[in-house]
Amino acid sequence: MITRKIKLRDHEQLVRAFGVQDSRLRELERDLKVDFFVRHEAGDGGVEVSIRGSNSRVDKALAAIRQSLGEETPPAKSVVKPIVDGVLFRPQRGKAVAARSQRQAEYVEAIFSKDLVFGIGPAGTGKTYLAVAAALRALEIGLIEKIVLTRPIVEAGENLGYLPGDLYEKVHPYLMPLYDAFGALVGHEEFRDLRTDGVVEIVPLAYMRGRTLENAFMILDEAQNTVPEQMKMFLTRMGMGSRMIVNGDITQVDLKDKKRCGLALAEDILGTSPNVRFVKFGKEDVVRHPLVREILHSYEKWESRGY
């Protein structure tokens, strides 16, 4: 949830914006599912109106008020730095999100300087969480208009038709890391509103074919389970004004033919492109429980013996 304010000059503007006896205000609250708080200022007779709701709904309410007042939509936002004082995103509740290692800082910098970024490394290094925080920040400052989340569903053979429920319910178990990140950063209610408004779209990778997504922030998670054809298909969905984050761990490939890992081959194919950045995380970048780093190191030693 966010809160934004607009200042009305006097009672006449208040009536123009919200109608007689606030009939228009109640209509906006009902249709857009936002809350209005009106405060009359004693000094100059002005009125301060606060609007609370999801980002997209509040924007629609503000646009409706400005239209009622005969105002034009304000010009596009001026260029805003995505990272201020080292902070990537400030949730309504909880701690500000910032890089916690040099590699994470490199990853965040790459996200806002390149249109295509690959984050490769073990679990617990913050790839998914930082990608979601960056997507929300890009949305917040007007760099993009929507966020698209996807991943290959190899566990279901990419065929979701037989699974019960609607599309969201079908893919829900497979995208929990992304949902957890959104829930932690904006809350589950706001995340639900963003999905309802179409600002956040959840798409199984197999359903991406044939689309071109413009002004979108696309996150492909678990990319180690793509084959080269799927990776090519996803990367070529990029439209004007869009950016892509591709995350995965090439030590956790679930494909039958591990040599066909689309993520591992992507660096061979695209590694020399100046417009693409590959950021590789190691166990030293793990930001989960300290024991996770020890577990990863122990398993690496065990795997090196050829078991």
**What is the CATH level 1 assignment of the largest domain?**
Alpha Beta
Number of helices: 11
Largest beta sheet, briefly? 6 strands, parallel
Rg, rounded, reads 23 Å
End-to-end separation: 50 Å
**Considering DSSP H and I runs of 4 or more, what fraction of the residues is helical?**
25-40%
Give me the CATH architecture of the largest domain, please.
3-Layer(aba) Sandwich
The chain-level mean pLDDT equals: 85
- Computed structural class: alpha/beta
The helix-strand sequence is EHHEEHEEHEHEHHHEEHEHEH
Runs with pLDDT <50, length 5+?
Answer: 73-78
Number of strands: 11
What is the assigned CATH homologous superfamily of the largest domain? P-loop containing nucleotide triphosphate hydrolases
Beta-strand level of the residues, as a percent range? 15-25%
Morphology:
elongated
Number of domains: 2
Instruction: Fill in the CATH topology of the largest domain.
Output: Rossmann fold
Report on this structure.
The model is unreliable at 73-78 (pLDDT under 50). The protein has helices at 11-18, 23-32, 55-68, 102-113, 127-140, 167-171, 176-186, 188-196, 228-235, 262-270, 290-304; strands spanning 2-8, 35-40, 47-53, 87-89, 97-98, 116-120, 146-150, 200-202, 216-220, 243-248, 276-280. The chain has eleven helices and eleven strands. Helix 5 crosses helix 7 (176-186) and helix 9 packs across helix 10 (262-270). The longest helix has 15 residues, at 290-304. It is an alpha/beta fold and 307 residues long. The chain has two domains: 2-69, K Homology domain, type 1 (Ribosomal Protein S8, Chain: A, domain 1, 2-Layer Sandwich); 87-302, P-loop containing nucleotide triphosphate hydrolases (Rossmann fold, 3-Layer(aba) Sandwich). Strand 4 and strand 5 form a beta hairpin. It is elongated.
